[in-house]
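FAQ
Q: What does a multi-component entry look like?
A: The components come first, one per line:
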Amino acid sequence: MFPAAFDYHAPTSISEALKLLGNGNKILAGGHSLLPLMKLRLAEPPALVDIGRIPELDGIREEGDTIVIGARATHAAIERSDVLAQKVPLLCQTAAWVGDLQVRSRGTIGGSLAHADPGGDLPAAILALDATLTAVGPSGSRTIAARDFFTGLMSTGLADDEILTEIRVKALPPRTGTAYEKFPNPASRYAIVGVAATITLGSDGTVAQAAIGMTGLSERAFRASGVEVALAGKRPVETEVAAAAEQADQGQDALGDIHASERYRRHLSHVLTKRAVLEAASRARS
Amino acid sequence: MAGQVHGGVAQGIGQALMEQAVYDDNGQLLSGSLMDYALPVAADLPEFQTDHTVTPTPSNPWGVKGIGEAGTIAASAAVVNSVVDSLAHLGVRHIDMPLTAERVWDAIQSAGQGR
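Then the predicted structure of the entire assembly, as tokens:
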């Protein structure tokens, strides 16, 4: 199908873009989540506000031990970024799994996070990294912690009159390894379940810090805090990690659809959590 | 001809592992777009090595026959049989196509319970 009729604006500044929001208008970044929905007429915004001509939204830069990623950075740019590969490799590892080459070349981190598809990959990573997101609205800018950002099915803490402008992540401490494990939907390639893990080892080789972000299992991405607590102080070996991974779906209502039942998703959450943690721990050691 | 066999094999693998038209209890098609109907793409498939024997048919002067169905019919059977064979030691005898990950997992779980 083709989309319902819409107007198109291409502002060249954030303030110009803000004036165009409201009335159900949607921001267009890479369009690779939004446009398919519009073609299915699951979204019919009266106008698209293309933010592709606003230079402040691009780029990946360092500010001390924080890496600042512009909301319009593409998944491909993140995957290729040298500074992220060195300081926050989890983002490169996760971005590499998004969709396919064409999607990664156009889709953006800001769009993916603001859209908050339950099967999107990046929400898992930014939760595991405790990222902070910057939102700009008519009354100025504010920061939102990743943990507070995903509020429900395709819902975020962004107001309708705000634009997500940047994502800030801290460089990972020493003795930290990361991994993203994904079971993709065989048709859409979204995550049926995706698990992002950062594991920091103590000098005795046990888990000092664990952060597990999960997507695909339920309506919104979340931190698997049950797993994190179960891993603390443990040696990251198969038996201990498998036992901790059983906590992955605790307290979560699981989704079920034609691609994976609720039961199978819960099973996947255990298996992928175990694999992600073991991989991250092995990387932490090397 | 090799290309036609590749295409046929891809279709056969797709039928064996991925493709299904799914309806709900009201007859509503749930796999109504390519976001839900899984088709194999090149990245899903291995490299193919093809070979052939040549046996001219006596039924026409050129000795030729159509090649279109060779890849697609044989591939589905080969893939399903290979999966069931590798799970036979667990007691799995049969799995309905498409052999999605969940169906294979279910077959393994059920076989373990002697069903």
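Q: Is there any commentary attached?
A: Sometimes. For this entry: The mean pLDDT of chain A is 96.
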